[in-house]
Amino acid sequence: NTLIIEISCENLDRGKLNYCGEVLKGGGTVVFPTETVYGLGANAIYEKAVEKIFKAKGRPSDNPLIVHVTGEEDVIPLVKAIPPKAKEVMDAFWPGPLTIIMEKSSRVPYNVTAGLNTVAIRYPAHPIAKALIEAAGVPIAAPSANISGKPSPTKASHVIDDLDGRVDVIIAGGDCSVGLESTVLDMTTDIPTILRPGGVTKEELEGVLGRVEMDPSLLTGVLDISPKSPGMKYTHYSPKAEVVVYAGEDESVVKAISNKANELMANGKEVGIICTNETQHRYKKGIIKPLGSKKDMKTIAAKLFSTLREFDETKVDIILAEALEEVELGQAIMNRLVKAAGYKIYRV
Ligand code: TXA
Ligand code: MG
After folding, report:
1. Complex ipTM > 0.90
2. Does the first or last residue of the chain, that is N or C, have fewer Cβ atoms within 10 Å of its Cβ?
3. How far apart (Å, rounded) are the C-alpha atoms in residues 162 and 165?
4. Annotated binding residues for L-threonine, as ranges?
5. What's the whole-number mean pLDDT along residues 145-151?
6. SS3 content of the chain, % helix, strand, coil (to 5)
7. From the CA of 291, how far away is ligand 1's center (Å)?
8. What is the pTM of this model?
9. How far apart are CA 309 and CA 239, in angstroms?
10. Structure confidence by residue, pLDDT tens digits, 287-327
11. Counting beta carbons within 10 angstroms of the beta carbon of residue 11, is it exposed (0 to 12), middle (13 to 18) or buried (19 or more)?
12. Ligand 2 ion local residues (Cβ < 5 A)
């Protein structure tokens, strides 16, 4: 039985938070909002509690978890050492949507890191997440709070759909403002390497670190290059309908999607279209969902996962999606969209 507790950011209820903190400390599971997506939390230094996370979301045990803390001091017992450059990015981007990979200490159980000698750590900015971790008094391991393979949850209703009955507590705390998961940055390599693009962009990281690399598996989108971030090899973010992405000049993309939609609908298929505010009026048929203006990538990022989930409610057979430019936040957005499409991307 899952207890659903509503907490508002404006008026943090300490009584409720202390209760949830006790559940975590005692080895239970609590879903909580962060600024990126909802997380499925358990006490990170309690192996039996961590096991429950994998079970609840059906997550393969070779995919490591992120450990959530509320300050640089909390990192010290979890790692061998904090590299000076890691400290620089912490100072610049924490609390926030950045996860940092460092060498782990013996304190971190191997089921958290899926057997790796490194650990992923993040200090989230969301007031409920911060207050909850503080109330628990222990570091909190938390993957995104979705059933493995589904789009990450950005609203309490998404979590309830996926995990009601599978966790001890769900904190319903409103919508996640970033809407895409954190950037995963490996600080154990000579040149810092992005393993997953996210809320903090490569451009922003370069502003602090100088040179930053992207993991080769991100650049090619080819699955047979073994990714360093084990999570990147699984199918992800998939709505029920098939997704296909179209990339190119606006004009040719609108034409290609419109033609394809016409053809599919003539064959009795229901078609969904993911586009932008700028192009939405160009489409005449299908269920058309603009994510926002191209000039406002933050809104597009925040709406992507909820839009993919909305299409599960409509009975579309296929979703045709416009690609976005892969700069700044566009890198993270395209990474998720292309994965949702299982790498089916047409250049037109
Ligand atoms: O925004 C987020 O990061 C959310 C919120 C809840 O904090 N969490 C999240 O967790 O997205 P999850 O488990 O869905 O994604 C964690 C990613 C996976 O791709 C995993 O493979 C990678 O981080 N990861 C974790 N530990 C790692 C490690 N030691 N080395 C390389 N990659 C690691
Ligand atoms: Mg996830």
Report:
1. yes
2. N
3. 9
4. 36, 68, 122, 182
5. 95
6. 35, 20, 45
7. 25
8. 0.95
9. 6
10. 999 999 999 999 999 999 999 999 999 989 999 999 999 99
11. exposed
12. 144
